[in-house]
Design goal:
By secondary structure, this protein is mainly alpha-helical. The chain has one domain. The chain is about 55% helix and about 5% strand. The protein has a two-stranded antiparallel ribbon with strand order 1-2. α1 runs antiparallel to α5 and α1 runs antiparallel to α8. The relative contact order is 0.17. InterPro entries: DUF6714 (IPR046560).
Length: about 200
């Protein structure tokens, strides 16, 4: 897509008003590696992808990331879920600005999908994506952890920031009309942002 979607300029202005540039970066950037055993009990581990994300972001203000360079970072698509909830809330505007200002192509559309993915509240009733392999307690613990993490992320945003995220999802929603349903931006809006 060569031109920004309709409403991008207004949304960009809202994002810039909502996210202060003077806030210091969070001390904790990477999410703790966590896996759940068959009984649903948590166990911590050192996650290499989370450590890569921490090295990339740590100590840098969100405004340090040039939009084009951020969208081309090798872990941009996969790295967002490895950020701790407060770090995700802090660095989110860098992604929103990049996606509202840079042309979307096949690669950057993948970044958009990843951003919308972290903005989507997990569904506790969602069926297992891969049947078998995980016991019920293990699966439930994983879902509850994802819900807890999402809630911690949105709790780190103030009302103005949540409004900017809602505006972003509404601007991006039409871009998903050409992909098979369901529309990910619409799902994110329905599950949390427009409630």
């Amino acid at each position: 897509m060569k031109t920004p979607p309709p409403g991008s300029a207004e949304c960009l202005a809202e994002v810039r008003r909502a996210f202060p540039v003077a806030l210091p970066p969070p001390a904790l950037v990477a999410r703790e590696g966590l896996w759940f055993d068959e009984a649903g009990l948590p166990h911590a581990y050192e996650n290499p992808e989370a450590l890569d994300a921490a090295r990339h972001f740590a100590g840098r203000p969100w405004t340090d990331f040039a939009p084009a360079a951020l969208l081309q970072w090798e872990l941009t698509q996969g790295g967002l879920p490895f950020l701790a909830p407060r770090a995700l809330a802090y660095y989110l505007p860098a992604y929103l600005v990049a996606l509202l200002t840079e042309p979307l192509d096949v690669d950057t559309f993948g970044v958009l999908e990843s951003v919308v993915g972290v903005l989507t509240r997990p569904d506790e009733r969602e069926p297992r994506s891969t049947p078998g392999g995980r016991g019920e307690a293990q699966w439930r613990a994983m879902v509850q952890e994802r819900l807890r993490s999402f809630q911690a992320f949105v709790d780190a945003l103030d009302e103005q920031q949540r409004s900017a995220v809602t505006a972003f999802l509404k601007v991006m929603e039409p871009l998903f009309e050409s992909v098979p349903p369901p529309n990910p931006a619409r799902t994110a809006l329905e599950r949390y942002w427009t409630r």
